[in-house]
Amino acid sequence: MDGAVSDPNILLIDNSPVYPYGTTEQFPQMQDSDLAALENSAHYYMECSNKGKCNRDTGECECYEGYDGVSCQRASCPGYPASCSGHGVCKTIKQLAAADYGNVYELWDKDATMGCECDAGYTGPDCSLRSCKYGVDPLYLDDVSTVKYSIYDFATLSTAQVFNLQKMFTNGEVEAGMGYWSIRYYDNFGEDWVTTPIQAGASCQEVMDALYGLPNDVIPASTLKCTKTSVHNGTENTFSYSDSVTYDSDFPSGSAHPYKIIRQMALWEAKQPSNVGEISPFTPITVYTGSNDTSLNIISGFIYRMKFFGNPGSMREPEIELYLDGKRPSLVSPGGKVITKVWTDGQQGEYNDYFADHCDGVTARIEHTTSTALGRQSFLTGMTATEKNLLKKCLGDADFDTSNNQDVYNWDKGTKLYPHIIKLVRTVTTQTDGGYYAVLWYDTTVTWDEVNNEGTFRLLNPFDSPDTFSSDNYDIYTTKGTLALTSNASEATFGFASKYIYTTNITYDIMGYNSSDAFDGDISCEYGNNNAGKKAYLHHCLNKTDMFTVINWEYPNYNPPYINLYTAERLYTGNYQHSVADRFSTVKGGKVNEENELHYQTHFINTDISTNWAVSVGNFTSTNARNDFGKPQFHVYKFFPSADSTYEYVAPCANRGICDTDSGECECFAGYTSDNCGTQASLAL
For the domain bounded by 352-480, which CATH number is listed? Predict the structure, then answer.
């Protein structure tokens, strides 16, 4: 009010220091005409909110353009009074934040700043623009480039002891074998589509028919591939092999197996809720004691691996719907708990290829060796000395610092703080095989590949061939982007097929319980005034929209074979349910009580896709790789993509046309055709 604009020097915490970005603001300390400081001088109450004139005859406010309300107290949504062009909903900034994975906005204008939430297929500030159909850029495809299409696993399982798989589910009535579920599928525009009911235990063809039956050709005909796996009472010898497999970090071995999927679900389902329909997320599951006093979890059901090779782009993760009859679940398992899970195993779709640098002249095979100390190890082999040197040049810098690069190839070997990340694609394959991510470093202490006896490219994920062709060669794609450890003092832990990753302290005695220099494991960038000291423990913080993965450096055989790149959709801190002392208060069989294992952890990362393996909490009194009970410690690694290595190959009109935002139709460039311009014409006109 003194007419001067100065830097902010007053911090106002409006609601909670947990979300500084959404609840904290700063403003200048004003002065009055006598130069006296005016504290808390922001956002005065003013007549008509200073955004309108008072009509003295009626006592009503006449708002300036762009503002409305009885006292002009809020911004108008674009297009007011016909807000959002009839193709969206006018919401407050607080509501818009909450709709985005539950994010928080609690500043002074939470109910005053307005915006449009557009209907699917519409965009723009006022939702007046039509979106066009997405397609794959035909110029992206060549002799080696392939498209990464989404592959999702859908699991419908039960903890009941089952004698007949086909009759294990009901719809809540007496008749067995009549349980039903549906798939909620999301298209490129975020529109959700729900299939007709699918009977429990349905065949692959029946599940595909339900997806093909979605209206508007949402999933084009003949563009699905399905594999079904049946599981009976959690016993290994009743499984049928398929490509529906994942890795169990608690039981590393030479090859992945469906049994490990079920084992992990059983271990963690008592701790975490199912994706959909779970009422009591911490209900214990049924277990029995097998031979040699070995506890096994009884889980039965069906897993469907579905490849969507007709729907390019980064799909929002589909969901399983259980409540098809109002509030009553349509999939019930008498005597047990129904578990539904959806996850992807290194094959999420993408709009951008962040690994677009093909390492020309280099192909490699994946082989394994067993170390007494470290277990099963994976590495690149089959390369000549020339190919190894070419790969070094392709990998290049790994740590944002070119001054420490080595030899004539100008590269880094990779370290725990900055390993290399690459993409592996079969040398002989189809255009729908998008390849798999791998994290590696160059170890000069081992010579497993026996080329010049100078070192080995070791993989941090124990990569297995996704099928029986285990001896294939792979092309290697690199990136000028960087994979960086967020914090060596923060451990990640999470359940199988979960969108919630917990981060917690590993460095100090019981989370700094007796330390004056404690760190709570929070790796978010929301430092704020009360937790700025966390910077000392962070190499790189994590923010909303950042990409990351979770790996263990010291014991790579505990990592999953297939790496997912996750996007952080929300970082937040929950309320404590137990103190740290409660976590260690009860001893069972010489071990700490695990009943509260996840209750005292409060720092969460909400991800866009579910995890494809489970990680137990580590030991908070040790900085070693393993805790006292044999579990490794896993860390969050943030991926910094490089624009020089990124190609947007899935886009509206396939990058080969212009979107007519009035009609939502593509106007293709000469030489390209189809409704998304994704087809090269045989004759350019």
Answer: 2.40.30
